[in-house]
Amino acid sequence: MNAFLLDTMRSTIPSLVSRSFGMDQRLARNGLKKREIEFQACLIEILRASISVSEGLRQAFEHFCATTRPERGILMSAGALVVPPVSEPQLHILHSWPMDSAEPESGLGASRSSANLCLRAITQVRHQGEIGIFVYFPRNFSRRASESCTRVLEALIQTAAAMIEVDHRYRVLLRALPYDPLTHLPIWSLFKEKVERRFSRLDRENLPATLMLVCFSGLLNAPDGSVKAEGAVEQISHVRDAIGFLQRAIRPTDLVGQLDRESYVLWLDGGDRFASVERAELICKRKYLCEAGSNPEISVKIGLVTREPHSTDTLDTFFERARLAHSIAREDNVDWYFAHETA
Questions:
Q1: Helix (H) or strand (E) holding 188
Q2: What is the pTM of this model?
Q3: Parallel/antiparallel/unpaired status of strands 129-137 and 263-269
Q4: Could you give the CA distance from residue 247 to residue 249 in angstroms, rounded to a whole number?
Q5: Which of 10, 62, 86, 187 is surrounded by the fewest CB atoms within 10 Å?
Q6: Cα separation of 60 and 75, whole Å?
Q7: Residue 74: half-sphere exposure toward Cβ, Cα within 13 Å
Q8: pLDDT tens-digit map of 201-260
Q9: In 3D, which of 337, 191, 200, 202 has the Cα closest to residue 270?
Q10: Contact at 8 Å (CB) between 247 and 205?
C-alpha cells in the first residue's frame, strides 16, 4: 500500500509543478499587461491635462524616461511643434533626457545603435511632418519589457499626433471666424459688412455718421516678451474691461469692432462732428474709470472722421483717414485728432 501511494505521488507531483509553473507565467504576463495599460493611461492623461500639446508631450516624455530609466531619450520632430514653422522638413530636437546630455543632431543614434537597444516610435502629423521618440536602453534590457515600452510609446506618440491635428484644425477655424473668440467683437470684415448695411438708411434719413479709431497703448504689457498664466489672466481682464468702458461710452445702437487687442473701431450713427468730438473727449478724459485706464502708463489716442449723407466714399477710405488722424494725434501727443472728409 505504501509503495502504491509513493508511486502515485511521484506521478502526480510533476504534473502539479508544471501546472503551477504555467499558472505563474500567466499571472506574470497578466500583471505585466496590467502595468503596461496603467502606465499608458498615465502618460496619455499627462498629455491631455497640459495647457498645450507640446508641453503635455514633453511632460509625458519626461515621465516615461523617469519611470523606465533609459540611458538616453530624445523627443524629435520633422516639422510639427517646431516654432516658427519650417519651410522644409528637417530634424529638430524638441526635448532630450536627461537634460544635461546634449549632442549635435548629426549622428544621433549612429554610435549608440550598435551598443545599445534603441526603441523607436514615429508617426506622421498631417500637413506638418513627423514626430518621434527615440529611447536607448542597455543591450540586456528584456525583450518583453522592450515590446511593452514600444507599445506604450507608439500609443503616446499617435495620441499626440491626433491632438496636434485637432488643435491645428481648431486654430484654422478660429482664424476664419468673423469675430474675436475672446472678446466676441466683430473683426474688420464683419464690422465693415454691418456698417455698409447702414449707409442707405443714413442717406435716406439725411444723417451723418462718425468712424472712431480708438487705440490703447500699454494695455497688454509684456516687457520681456513672455506672459505667465497669472499675467495673461490679468491682461485679458484689462482688455474686457476696456471694451466694456467703450461700450458704455456709446449708444447701444452704435457698433464696436476689433482690429487687435488694443485697437478698436466705433461707428456712431447720427454722430456729427461736434457730437463725435465730445464723445472722444469723454473717452480720453474718463479712461481712468476702467481698470486698465487707472494705470498711468496706459494712454488712449483716437482718430475720427465723419461721413456726410450721400457720400460716395467707401468705408475703407474713411478708415484710412481715421488711421491718418490717429497717427497725427500720436505725433502731436494729443488725445484725439479729427480728419475732415475733404482731407
A1: helix 188-196
A2: 0.62
A3: unpaired
A4: 5
A5: 10
A6: 11
A7: 20
A8: 999 999 999 999 999 887 776 544 444 555 667 777 778 888 888 888 889 999 999 999
A9: 202
A10: no
